[in-house]
């Protein structure tokens, strides 16, 4: 049995940015259980409740701090692309006093161009604290709606 530690740590460090930590922990334990006995796992791996504060502290070092104003928002390159990092996801950022930020992938724009109808949903409760409204543009294709564009508006 040979575990490639560097590859495993790299994989986990990417996943903890976008996946809830309990899920990452459970996935890793499940994968380990196919390699070693349950007794070995219990002997060498602490339960999630005992290590969760350490895991959250490690994750907090990889994820940017939440800004207090929209002027403080900095969108790093890895957050301006899709999860697989293959497509641009940040559509535009006005970076002015009224700071409007829009997110959409090229596949989302393609869906919008193919759609017979667009449906727009403007919500206030789901918007982040620094913003007043989240507007979502959906493509309606073959009786199915696909969320494509997400736009954040201040008051």
Structural class: alpha+beta
The tally of domains stands at 2
Radius of gyration: 20 Å
Global geometry? extended
Tell how many strands the DSSP assignment holds.
Answer: 5
Strand percentage lies at 15-25%
Arithmetic mean pLDDT: 86
Low-pLDDT runs of 5+ residues are none
Largest sheet geometry: 5 strands, antiparallel
N-to-C terminal Cα separation, in Å?
A: 58 Å
In what order do the strands lie side by side in the largest sheet? 1-2-5-4-3
- The arrangement of helices and strands along the chain is HHHHEEHEEE
**What count of helical segments does DSSP give?**
5
Structure, described:
By secondary structure, the chain is of the alpha+beta class. It folds into 2 domains: 5-62, no CATH class; 70-153, no CATH class. It has helices at residues 5-18, 21-33, 38-44, 48-62, 106-114, and strands at residues 90-93, 101-103, 117-123, 133-141, 144-153. The longest helix has 15 residues, at 48-62. The radius of gyration is 20 Å and the shape is extended. The relative contact order is 0.10.
Secondary structure blueprint with pairings:
Blueprint: H1 5-18, H2 21-33, H3 38-44, H4 48-62, E1 90-93, E2 101-103, H5 106-114, E3 117-123, E4 133-141, E5 144-153
Antiparallel strand pairs: 1-2, 2-5, 3-4, 4-5
Main features:
155 residues, 5-stranded antiparallel β-sheet, 5 helices
Quick structural gist:
The chain contains five helices and five strands; from the N terminus they run H-H-H-H-E-E-H-E-E-E.
